[in-house]
Design goal:
Blueprint lengths: L8 E4 L5 E4 L4 E4 L14 H24 L5 E9 L18 E9 L4 H14 L1 H7 L11
Antiparallel strand pairs: 1-2, 2-3, 4-5
Helix pairs in contact: 1-2
Length: about 140
């Protein structure tokens, strides 16, 4: 299959608020007041967790359908911790991002444990967002004048 290309454009409205335009949607990214923001939208690291959840949902239903596994619904909690020191400009040896992301899935299904184990392995293997979080992806940032 040929590669699919996705892109967004964005413009800041203030130092913490970014308005992102996708193919059809406008997304507001902001920070909470304790981080200097106006709380007009989720912050960037919350969007990372939300993107992972959205991808697991789509892939989870796709894989269940392919397997003939009934999946009536899917609930999840996704969380992670990070040390804000480097983000705030303080010296630290800690990395800036999440130390670990934990996902708890609760599929609404009558499938047995063996089927669910096979399903989740395929979901983990096929989710593009978890792949991007699990593996280094080159990021090339350039400055235009």
């Amino acid at each position: 299959m040929p590669d699919m290309k996705f892109s967004v454009t964005a413009k800041c409205e203030n130092p913490t608020k970014l308005v992102v335009n996708t193919s059809k949607f406008k997304i507001i990214i902001d920070e909470p007041p304790n981080l200097g923001g106006t709380d007009d939208g989720p912050n960037p690291v919350e969007y990372v967790l939300a993107a992972l959840g959205g991808c697991l949902n789509v892939v989870g239903h796709l894989v269940a359908k392919e397997m003939g596994m009934e999946l009536k619904g899917l609930e999840m909690t996704i969380e992670g911790e990070m040390d804000p020191s480097k983000f705030m400009g303080k010296p630290t040896k800690e990395r800036t991002g999440y130390k670990e992301i934990r996902v708890n899935l609760k599929p609404v299904t009558s499938a047995d444990k063996a089927t669910i184990d096979k399903w989740i392995k395929a979901v983990e293997d096929r989710c593009p967002v978890s792949d991007n979080l699990r593996n280094p992806t080159p990021i090339k940032i350039s400055v235009l004048k």
